[in-house]
Design brief:
The chain is built from four helices and four strands. It is of the alpha+beta class. It has a domain of 86 residues. The longest helix is centred in the last third of the chain and has 15 residues. The radius of gyration is 23 Å and the shape is elongated.
Length: 132
């Protein structure tokens, strides 16, 4: 039996989202920053550099389903197989907004090692300085 939602092409899925911290100190700091930021004029906003990073994931990581014969005779046919990674390949991507427009964007290279203050200054902030 199909519901109206199914007939219209919709279905339910588990949400994969990361929420904000609910730690009281963090909430207080975010609220304080927001109260201050709404007082900024346009010139102040354009002088602010915004930076954020996101993990970009590649490859197949979830269960994939294919249609095969019931007897399983074509189960291992090359066209029905997909490589799966035991550990997901991932890259950290840094994007910026500078002077109200898209600023430099950088993929964090594996050979740079883990992110710390010194490396962030060298590889991320130096690109922003060169952009200005």
């Amino acid at each position: 039996m199909h519901t109206a939602m199914t007939l219209l092409g919709y279905c339910r899925r588990t949400s994969k989202k990361k929420g904000f911290s609910d730690e009281p100190r963090v909430c207080h700091d975010r609220y304080g920053f927001a109260q201050w930021a709404v007082t900024w004029d346009r010139e102040r906003v354009l002088n602010q550099i915004f930076s954020d990073e996101v993990w970009a994931m590649g490859g197949a990581h979830t269960t994939s389903y294919v249609t095969v014969r019931q007897d399983g005779s074509d189960r291992y046919a090359a066209k029905n197989l997909q490589h799966k990674y035991s550990k997901r390949p991932a890259w950290m991507f840094h994007g910026t907004i500078v002077q109200g427009r898209k600023g430099p964007a950088v993929f964090w290279e594996k050979e740079w090692g883990s992110v710390n203050s010194e490396r962030y200054d060298e590889y991320i902030l130096s690109n922003i300085q060169a952009f200005l």
